Every structure is written in structure tokens, then in C-alpha cells.
Backbone:
């Protein structure tokens, strides 16, 4: 009788493992504009995305030169929160910095 329970438990575990799906990931993007200062973009990257000063500067230059830059890759809810935070901080500070997200 103990063997039957173990076999059943193994079967249930195997089926459960196959159903678990990794959450979809989203890229959070910053978009270049003619008004937001480079210093403010670096501050946003450090404050919201917890990037180092060097990494923040690299991303900011990428945004400036290519028109868009990836700030990070997150689950939907985290990405959505970061986009909202960046846009609110930008407006409060008088900048039109645009932040968006797209599926990875």
C-alpha cells in the first residue's frame, strides 16, 4: 500500500512541475527627448532602477545616442510600477521623459 501512495505522489509532482510556467518578462525602456537633462536621467536610473553611476551613465548615453535604452527586464507588475514611477517623477520635476515597457 505504501508503494501505491508513493507512485501516485510522484505522478502528481511530475504533472505539477510541467504546469508551472515562468512569468513573462518585460523590458522597461527610456525614450530620448530634447528637454530632459542627462543628469536627471542618470538620477532616475540610480533611484528607480538601482543602477550604479557608471551603468546609469552608460544607459543614459545609449538613450541619448540611439533614441531609446533598456533600463531593465522585469515581470509585468514590476515593469508597470517602474514605468509609472519614472513618469510621475519626471512630471513632478518638470520633464517630459517617456518610459515604456514591451514584452521581452
Residues:
Amino acid at each position: 500500500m505504501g508503494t501505491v501512495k508513493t507512485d501516485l505522489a510522484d505522478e502528481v509532482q511530475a504533472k505539477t512541475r510541467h504546469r508551472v510556467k515562468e512569468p513573462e518578462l518585460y523590458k522597461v525602456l527610456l525614450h530620448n527627448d530634447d528637454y530632459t537633462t542627462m543628469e536627471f536621467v542618470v538620477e532616475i536610473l540610480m533611484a528607480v532602477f538601482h543602477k550604479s553611476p557608471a551603468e546609469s551613465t552608460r544607459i543614459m548615453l545609449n538613450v541619448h545616442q540611439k533614441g531609446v535604452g533598456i533600463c531593465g527586464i522585469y515581470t509585468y507588475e514590476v515593469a508597470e510600477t517602474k514605468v509609472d514611477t519614472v513618469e510621475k517623477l519626471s512630471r513632478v520635476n518638470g520633464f517630459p521623459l517617456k518610459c515604456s515597457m514591451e514584452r521581452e
